[in-house]
Fold:
Amino acid sequence: LDPKSFSEDSMTVIDFLADYYKYVEKYPVQSRVEPGYLLQQLPNTAPHCPEPLENILKDVNDSIIPGLTHWQSPNFFAYFQANASTAGFLGEMLCSGLNVVGFNWIASPAATELECIVMDWMGKMLKLPSSFLFSGTGGGVLHGSTCEAIVCTLAAARDKALEEIGGDYITKLVVYGSDQTHFTLQKASKLVGIPRANFRSLATSFSSEFALSPDVVRAAMEEDVAAGLVPLYLCATVGTTATGAVDPVEPLGHIAKEHKVWFHIDAAYAGSACICPEFRHYLVGVELADSISLNPHKWFLTNMDCCCLWLKNPKSLIDSLSTDSELLRNSASDSKAVVDYKDWQIALSRRFRAMKLWVVIRRNGLANLMVHIRSDVNLAKRFEAMVLEDERFEIVAPRRFALVCFRLKPKVDRGDGDGSDLNRRLLDAVNSSGRAFMTHAVVGGVYVIRCAIGSTLTEERHVDDLWKLVQEKARFLLLDNTL
Ligand code: PLP
Structure:
């Protein structure tokens, strides 16, 4: 690693990326390549000799970029975004450039201490109770994904429960979420050894606006207890993936306490919005939770990857995940006066993600982060208003954040059935135009088109163009000139 060529080559790559951002709007948003396309274009063995950076960047341009779905395009309205920003990129450069591996405190004291500081900063911005903060009685850690956060908290809950009821009883433990909970909970349950039959995906409905009903949870837990099972873990979601629904945290928290189950809040997407006072009420009752997670890589201007996990009792996580290796023994760890993050996560090695989040927070400040959330929400309101003005369309689930779920209303006399096929064709037509990309969900048996707003480059004109595109494709589909 020669500092001079490091600087020159890095500048070349940064210029390449700056150009990419300049023209990203011009690419078809969703990639159009066929499976296996890349093997047709690249050699199938590694080069023996070093290659010039220019040749590599040429291949990125000619072969890789056409195979990308452009997540940073202003016309990307699919899934939930992976927000990129200059600050996020600068932080990522520092993280990657310094390339330290802070698995325990001594392996890079600043990496650990910055993570503790940043987790408290984030927690305070969200007005989390001090029971989740290092400055209080809890603490937080940065993972790469919500899935990891849930696996780790489930492992902690499992071990705590098995210690109380006896190690052989894993087959009795039950995990609860709703049919809107992200599938990551089911995957995590499998990974920690919860029997498939003990995973409860409790029904939600249009009438509950796709939120988990406390009565349904209570009934399910009581039924399981009566059958000799042991409720273990309840996951509430603030901002579900399909529609942005919010489970009622406070009543669910009380039920969790009654049954002594671990209560986790998955705020992967919408947690970021809770830094704004007008959205903070969605976290009322958070003090009843054992843990809460949020992905800054979704809606907090933080480049991939970054997931915040706060715990009220980090010791339960450490008890479950710590391993005692002679190779890593050191006096700081022995003194118990430091945080060793290897015991808060699955892997040993870890990235210096705190650097990235720290730069994002400092370069924006709480003020600009709130502006960012509010401007996306306003764009979503703008799109929602356009949908509502057109009586052929309907909003299928209430919009709470920057996600709008809508569809063309099916008509019996047109033979639209339940409308799934009609809306699938509409979405295909929009996406295959290359001018925008949205995804779908099926909720309460209804196929909906999701318009998730939040790409950093998206402006009003992109939202307006999206709506024109939807109308244009609908007109073609319905063969109706009045649209
Ligand atoms: N939870 C919610 C509510 C999500 O929307 C998502 C992803 O969209 C996840 C969890 C999964 O997050 P990750 O990919 O970080 O595991």
In short: The mean pLDDT is 96. Residues 353-389 form the longest helix (37 residues). The longest strand covers residues 230-237. Residues 80, 145-147, 182, 184, 237, 239-241, 266, 268-269, 295, 307 surround pyridoxal-5'-phosphate (CB under 6 Å).
